[in-house]
Amino acid sequence: MKILMVCLGNICRSPLAEGILKSKLSDNFFVDSAGTISMHEGENPDKRAVKTAANHGIDISKQKSRPIRLLDLENFDKIYCMDLKNFEDVISMTKNQEQRKKVSLFLEEAGNHQDCEVPDPYWGDMSDFENVFQLLDIACNKISRQLQQQLINDKI
Ligand code: 4NP
């Protein structure tokens, strides 16, 4: 199963989400991330995101930012967006209902009904990155269980 995490720049939130989810899933899953803008294309994640992940034993230092492409909407099974603007931007790229069904707000899928947006830590400090890590870690625990169950159901 192929999972894509999406935020704006693909240097803070979605690289963290990618690294955390990967750490909880087996090799049956491919996890990647992308941004809705290409401004940081080719760059490694923000140093504060790298440090925060490393503090929790996760290495995201070798990831490289890339913009989301139309082909991603065909190739990925699930596309999780970090905030509402990201969600709207990705939905606007979809061509049909099949593609639209793949796109969701990450925290909403993880069961949050209020506060469904992962706040952008880019303009903040290390404590904002740690808060984002904690939010994503809890959500990734729930999402990883859902995805593992879905993989089992798909095989039956
Ligand atoms: P991200 O954070 O979407 O979580 O990667 C941001 C990265 C870059 C910018 C804004 C947010 N920026 O304005 O360049």
Automatic annotation (TrEMBL):
Pfam families according to UniProt: LMWPc
InterPro entries from the UniProt entry: LMW_PTPase, Ptyr_pPase, Ptyr_pPase_sf, Tyr_phospatase_low_mol_wt
GO molecular function per UniProt: protein tyrosine phosphatase activity
Domain Phosphotyrosine protein phosphatase I: 1-146
Keyword field contains DNA-binding: no
EC numbers for this chain: 3.1.3.48
Gene3D superfamilies: 3.40.50.2300
Keywords of the record: Hydrolase, Protein phosphatase
Signal peptide (UniProt feature, chain positions): none
Root EC class: hydrolase
Positions annotated as active site in the UniProt record: 7, 13, 120
Similarity remark: Belongs to the low molecular weight phosphotyrosine protein phosphatase family.
Protein name per Swiss-Prot or TrEMBL: protein-tyrosine-phosphatase
Source species: Chryseobacterium aquaticum
